[in-house]
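re: that chain from earlier
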Amino acid sequence: MTERHRESTSNAHHSWGKRPPRGDEHRLLEGPRLRREELFRSWRIFAEFIRGFRQLHFLGPTVTVFGSARFGEDHRYYQLARDMGAALADAGLATMTGGGPGIMEAANRGAKEAGGLSVGCNIQLPMEQEPNPYLDKFVEFRYFFVRKVMLVKYSDAFIAMPGGFGTLDEIFETAVLIQTGKIERFPMIVMGSDFWERPMNFVRTRMVEEGVISPGDPDLIRMTDDIDEAVGWIASSGTKGTPMKPARVLGESGASEPDQTT
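^ sequence. v structure.
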C-alpha cells in the first residue's frame, strides 16, 4: 500500500459520520428541480450506466464481495476476505468489490496476489474514497444506485463479509431481487458467522414468525466461515465461466483507469 493511499484512507476514516457536502445524488433526491436540470441529470445517469456497461461487459464469471471499508489489514475479517479473494482466483473467478479500502481492498488484494482478475466499482464520496491499489480494472460512479446495479448485473454470486448499513443494504436488496425472481437464484453467502449469527437468527425466527417473509426465504442467504465450502456452493450453482465476445456497439475496454466521460 502506498503512503499516499494510507494517508487518504486515514483521512477518509476521520470523515465518517460527518455531514457531507451536497453532490449530484443529493440534488437528485431532494425533490423537483427545473425540468431542464432534470433532463440534463437524466442524461448524466444514462451516460453513467453506459460507461459501466462498456467497462464491465466482458469480465466473464465474477463474484461480488461486499463488506465494510473500516477494517484494517490486521483484522481477522480482512484476512478472511483476502483468503476468499485468493480462493476465487484459484477457481477461475473474477473478484469484484466496491473498490474501496477495508474488506473491499482485502478481497481485491487476495485475488490479485493469486493471479486472478480484480475489479472495483468505486463511488465518489465526500470523504474522497479512492480506489484501493489492488485493482486491475475499476469504474468510478457518482450515483450509488448505478453502482449497485453494476455490482449485481455482472455477478454470478455474492459474498458478504461483516459490514455496516451499506453492506446490509447490499445484502437485503440482492436477497429481494432473488426472492422476487428479478435475478436468478445466485448464491448469496455471508461470511464471519460470529458477526452475522444474530441478524440471521432474527431473519430465521422473528421475520418468519411474523409472516413478513416465507419460511423458505432465509435459505436464500447461506452462512459459512469455510472458504472451500463457499467456493463449492458457487461452483455447484452452475457458473460456467464463459467470457462474452466483444460487440461493436458497446466496444471492448481493457483500460485499468476509470472512464471520466461526462
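The first strand starts at residue 62 and ends at 66.
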